[in-house]
Amino acid sequence: MAARPLDISELDEGDLWVFGYGSLMWRPGFDYVEQIPAQLIGEHRALCVLSHIHRGTPEKPGLVLGLDRGGACMGTAFRVAEANRPDTLAYLRGREQVTGVYREVMRSVWIEGNARRRVRALTYVVDRSHPQYTGRLSLEEQFRRVANSHGKSGANRDYVISTVKALEARGCRDPQLHHLVALLQGDTPLHR
Questions:
Q1: Does residue 169 carry a pLDDT above 50?
Q2: Rounded distance between C-alpha atoms, residue 92 and residue 97, angstroms
Q3: Is 96 a catalytic residue?
Q4: Which of 19, 49, 108, 170 is within CB 3.0–4.6 Å of 123 for a Cys-Cys bond?
């Protein structure tokens, strides 16, 4: 169930920009020239994707992030040198397109510190028609899945905690993820 990759004609010429909003922020896995905090408007970060490989198994799926409709998302824009475009695209497609749950798209992102600087960046948006898309889950359901899942890339809880740490390093807070991390670390009770 492979998602259609962008055609080379859909990419801008020159350096390639990539927008990371989850694990790409703290483990990009590709060479880049620079990384800059950036904001994408029109979609938000959400734990809305069942993970059967990286953070869970088909029998016990984990939960990972996707960009879903509405709102805005702070993340990281990576500038990749034009010479590294083919390798970066191949790497990202191998990492993000394993089950076809993400659509590969180009989106405008606003570079932090310069309100007028906007770049088009490659990003991965959740496909709402895909069976791994969960929609909006309760905090209790998120906690249950994240606390008890493990895949080939490690524990699901480590994925969420690392993402929150990456956001904090950029001076950003994601209230839902921060609350989930507090639950995972036992800093707050699930039911008040």
A1: yes
A2: 8
A3: yes
A4: 19
Q: Which of 192, 166, 181, 136 lies closest to 21 in space, CA to CA? A: 166
Count CB atoms within 10 A of the CB of residue 54. 17
> Could you tell me if residue 102 is inside a domain?
yes
Q: Name the catalytic one among 59, 82, 96, 141.
A: 96
Site of tokens 């962008």:
6
For the whole model, what pTM was predicted?
0.90
Q: What angle in degrees, to the nearest 10, is found between the helix axes of 139-147 and 175-184? A: 50
List the CATH number of the domain containing 52.
3.10.490.10
Task: Copy the structure tokens of residue 188.
Answer: 């707050």
Please, which residues have CB within 8 angstroms of residue 47's CB and are 6 or more apart in sequence? 63, 64, 65, 137, 142, 146, 160, 176, 177, 180
Query: Whole domain around residue 155: which residue ranges?
Result: 8-184
Determine the pLDDT at residue 189: 60
Buried-exposed string 5-14: b where 16+ CB fall within 10 A, e elsewhere: eeeeeeeeee
Answer for the pair 103, 140: CB distance below 8 angstroms, yes or no: no
The domain tally of the chain equals 1
Residue 45: name the closest of 78, 67, 12 by CA.
67
How confident is the model over 91-137, as pLDDT tens digits? 999 999 989 999 999 999 999 876 678 999 999 999 999 999 999 99
Q: Sign of torsion, CA 175 177 183 187?
A: negative
C-alpha 16/C-alpha 164 separation (Å) is 26
